[in-house]
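Purpose: get a first structural picture of the assembly so the mutagenesis plan has something to point at.
Setup: three entries, given in the order below. No constraints added.
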Amino acid sequence: MTQRAGARTVLGPDEIGRALTRIAHEILEANHGADDLVLLGIPTRGVHLAQRLADRLADITGIGFADRVGALDVTMHRDDLRGRPTRAPQPTRVPAAGVDDRVVVLVDDVLYSGRTIRAALDALADLGRPRVVRLAALVDRGHRELPIRADFVGKNLPSARSEHVRILLDEVDGADAVTIEDGAA
Amino acid sequence: MTTLLTGAAVLGGEPRDLAIEGDALVDPSAIDRDRAEVIDASGLIALPGLVDLHAHLRQPGGEQAETVASGVRAAAAGGFTCVFAMANTNPVADTPAVVEQVHRLGLEAGLATVRPIGAVTVGLAGERLADMTMLARSAARVTVFSDDGHCVHDAELMRRALEHAAALDAVVAQHAQDPALTRGAVMHEGPLSAELGLGGWPSVAEASIVARDAMLAELAGARLHVCHVSTAETVEVVRAAKARGVRITAEVAPHHLLLTEDLVRSYDARFKVNPPLRTDADVRALREALADGTIDIVATDHAPHAPEAKLTAFADAAFGMVGLETALSVVQMAMVETGLMDWAGVARAMSTTPAAIGREPGYDAPLEVGASAHVVLVDPAARAVVEERHLRGRSANSPYLGRELPGRVLHVWHAGRRTLADGRIVTEEVGR
Amino acid sequence: MRHLLTASMPRDEAIGLLDLAEDMHQIQDRELKKLPALRGRTVVNLFFEDSTRTRSSFEIAGKWLSADVINVSGKGSSVSKGESLRDTGLTIAAMGVDGVVVRSGASGAPALLADWIGRPVVNAGDGTHEHPTQALLDAFALRRRIHGGAARGKALDGVRVAIVGDIAHSRVARSNALLLPALGAEVTLVGPPPLLPPAAADGSRLGVRAEPSLDRVIDERPDALMLLRVQLERQAGKVAPSAAEYITGWSLTDERLARLGDAHLLHPGPMNRGLELSSRAADSDRSAILEQVTAGVSVRMAVLYSLLASDHPSAELGGAR
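Result (structure tokens, whole complex):
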């Protein structure tokens, strides 16, 4: 998928790459190293972002992260299942070591109302009891509806509710970009 | 009182006038036109009063579904002036008391002649013969015997019934259904019954009984009438028997001329009937057989049921459809509008011949001067979607609800008495 | 309104349901077997016919999705006291339930209820008509057997399945004969001739191959053999053969098992060991019978989720209706 007409690019591929690298360093710094770290991406794009972060953490630390990254589907825990067309869940993949007593970093593309993260915390609680849960988001566009904040943010992007913020990733969309467009368009 | 019908297409032919005086048709040129009630019948078809050799009026015993009085209202609305009432009442019409009761209820109701059919076997149980001679000699003068709803399956019983009937100049009307081949059967047997998981009623279960009965009728020298022929196979058997000279007549129900088993896909029990709706090929064969005379008549098999008998799973629901009100429209659609039959043919199949089979006098010279004034005026150009309010009987289990049918019966005279005027039942003795 | 009344559905929809069942299947590995998706929803299991295993499977599926599940059985209730099917359905609907799972001895009863009660209806087996969730779980178990962990998104293209037993009276056979071909499988119906559907080979939607000889089918080395429960007491001696006759012609005996190669074995249960199949066959590593039971819960979770999670479901489930 390519960028739509009328959309303004706020982050390009290089900026996205640098943001992820910075987040990887911040995660290690906050955790005082790589011990017990587990990354769980929230489908769809959060899963790919988690994988990219895992690759960077592996590069930085020299430790393999392949068995410390997974996916956490939140569909069953959403609070808007009734009001919207039936959502198809995506697979949840929990690393073999599990989440008990781990430091779980949830990874999502855009942090907005906070409702997805609320659902993710519930879904995670059904899987086990992590020691700490952190949140990383590529973009924080504000307008929170719940008392939730991100620990690691690629870019704060103040936006109007009427605007659409779209994250495009190479793995899904064929290119990396963050765009914003007027809702009226 | 004289009534003049002007410009009616008599039996679908050239427009001419008809005159009714008393209970007979008279020469329209010989009447005093100034004193006659004149009805403009231009554009309308004049037919003789229709005769239904096969209707279930449910009384006694099934009054929640129909009574003789409500049944003749449905009959009048459909253009019928004579209805043969089937014997499967409760108690069964196997004694003079029951047939005389039905006969009397018919006289009280007016609107149409009600001719009770007598049971062939006691209680329709298929075990011993009813007292056919007593029924024939009763005040109800039974001329048609039938266990309809059940097949007279025992070959010996059927043979003896035919022998009695021959002596009484009566006819045995057989519901042809081999019970062993139709255990649990609720729809036509074929790929669709396999798909829907419903018990199948194979065509052969009808044709095999008709073949046997034709031979028994030949042996007894009796008249055999086959109720509601539903399959192409049975048509072949009847055709062969007629060619051999067997005294066999056959009827087809309107629904078997128009509807097919595909309607059962909905599992809507309105489409559950016995014999069941069959295939397109059967419908075509039945239409051709009616057109060429292999099948002699159309009879409604009007079978009213209270709603609860139909608002249930298909296998559990009752068999049957109401049909008096819609029969002529269905025949118009299936036979006339397809070019298979003209209106004179309709008059034969729905009036003259059924009256002849049932030995009902007054129908042998349709619409001729001097004949009994059983007259129907039909607007063939009208079309309407069938709604529950069009049904004048007590039950609404019609397979045609929501379906557009052609033709509208506007006026009916039964022995000179007006029973339907502008589509409305005439309940009072208007003008007499 | 969405219902699951038949296993006849487009290929994409079938694969979608099986994939959804894969997602649900993950819960089997968890300590906490509970998803909140149907919290606040009430599902009634309306069983006019006894079936402990199917009812339990639906009950677990509903409960694992956090729905409130009520069981209403035909026996002893007003249903057996002459209340009409329609009145029973309307009464249950009037209690404010969100979905009804129906098992009935009457073919088409779930379809009628669906028309009458204005609630999503799941057919849990109707007469000799269909049993769509059974066919879905059979497909699910078979797909896992063939594709293993990579089953998601896959169909059953080219997989040759023989269904053996009383085909004519089997809702399981009927639903599988609709679903499996939609997924690309080649289905052969095998059984004593009186127990094969009439005219199975012509224009019916059940127009899959029918073959009276099990031995001939075994010689063709099918990929899977589904053995149906046989009830020989049904019209014994007229329609159904004797047990000895059945075993001679249609039982998966040890001898036939040896000739069968590595075909997967399926059975909807409950099994008559020694009649439909030998104990050795039932307990062999070719048998997927217990996996079918596990799959039943996952598939029924997928169905309940699809029908009940959203007030605005996007499309009909089970194409033909």
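Chain C has two domains: 11-130+294-308, 132-292.
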